[in-house]
Design goal:
The protein has helices spanning 85-96, 112-121, 150-163, 179-188, 227-240, 254-263, 273-276, 280-295, and strands at residues 13-15, 18-20, 24-26, 48-50, 67-70, 73-76, 102-107, 129-133, 168-171, 193-196, 200-203, 205-206, 211-212, 218-222, 245-248, 267-270. 50% of the residues are buried. The mean pLDDT is 94. By secondary structure, it is an alpha/beta fold.
């Protein structure tokens, strides 16, 4: 309580031993590495900034067009374009370290060796968490995503954990039959936390040109339309594992974020909404605080998994 007797909500959360001042993070690929959004959002006010996907070498991504709008969201086939680990370490980490927020580095790769390489090169860097994107295509398995095979999920997780100096968050794809099977495999491999969901695979066809809108034909669907799927998968996963879950998928306001918390997420990540409203992450932090004041919730952790029934 403050001196005036008004409750001061505690928004802090812990993910794998890392304390965040609040549960609001950014989604990889939607916030760059923070610099382009820093003129709109005070990065000091975020629980964590999750960087764009970082690979061992620069990735060019897919041919254009690679983004299109769909009802209730968007499709993207960017292909994880990025500058690679060397540029990231030299340019992006020093920028983010200026701010009082946690840094979670999203790591991508086409082989297990790729993941290991980036993880090892980040071992002595001042970053707080590693998020492993296992929706990447496994070139040794004909392009099938690492995250679609439980045995491969456990194998990748174990390989990364052997060399990681920071907590490891495995980012799960929703493009599977049973999300809990994948979640348990990641936990068995030693994951410190899980984040989900990544994008759903979708497609759009231009009926006038009778051609695919995206050069890649398919893309990852994100935005409000996928939120009910994401909430369901977060709920199932949180009940299936003991490690913390970070929920994402269609979060556009504080109400959406709170829904994920009630479903069992210990923190949330905001993605596509950043493209529509660059202020949205800060607004969601404020909205969660207002909700806690309205309902007399002292600690945001009291909301986690508190859905009834």
């Amino acid at each position: 309580m403050t001196e005036t007797g008004k409750m001061t909500p505690d928004l802090s959360v812990k993910i794998a031993g890392v304390e965040l001042k609040n549960p609001v993070m950014t989604c990889s690929g939607t916030f760059g590495s923070g610099e382009e959004y820093s003129e709109f959002v005070d990065l000091n006010g975020l629980g964590a900034v999750v960087t764009k996907g970082i690979a061992s070498e620069p990735w060019n991504g897919n041919p254009t067009p690679r983004v299109c709008e769909v009802t209730g969201g968007m499709l993207n086939a960017i292909g994880l374009q990025g500058p690679g680990i060397d540029v990231f370490v030299k340019r992006d980490i020093p920028f983010l370290r200026q701010y009082d927020t946690k840094i979670s580095v999203n790591i991508c790769g086409h082989t297990i060796e790729d993941y290991i390489d980036v993880t090892e090169r980040l071992a002595d860097q001042p970053v707080d968490m590693l998020e492993i994107n296992i929706s990447c295509p496994n070139v040794h398995e004909g392009g099938k995503a690492f995250g679609q095979d439980p045995a491969m999920v456990q194998k990748v997780t174990e390989a990364v954990k052997r060399v990681a100096k920071q907590p490891v968050i495995m980012k799960l794809t929703p493009n599977v039959t049973d999300i809990t099977e994948i979640a348990r495999a990641a936990e068995a491999g030693g994951a410190d936390a899980l984040s989900l969901i990544n994008t759903l695979t979708g497609m759009k066809i231009d009926i006038h040109r009778r051609s695919f809108v995206l050069a890649n034909k398919t893309g990852g669907m994100s935005g409000p339309a996928i939120k009910p799927v994401a909430v369901r998968m977060v709920y199932q996963t949180a009940r299936a594992v003991k490690v913390p879950v970070i929920g994402m998928g269609g979060i556009a306001c504080a109400d959406d974020a709170i829904e994920f918390l009630l479903a069992g997420a210990s923190a949330v990540a905001v993605g596509t909404a950043n493209f529509i409203d660059p202020y949205v992450t800060a607004e969601i932090v404020d909205g969660i605080r207002d909700y806690m004041l309205r309902y007399g919730v002292e600690r945001v952790t009291d909301l986690v998994g508190a859905v009834r029934g």
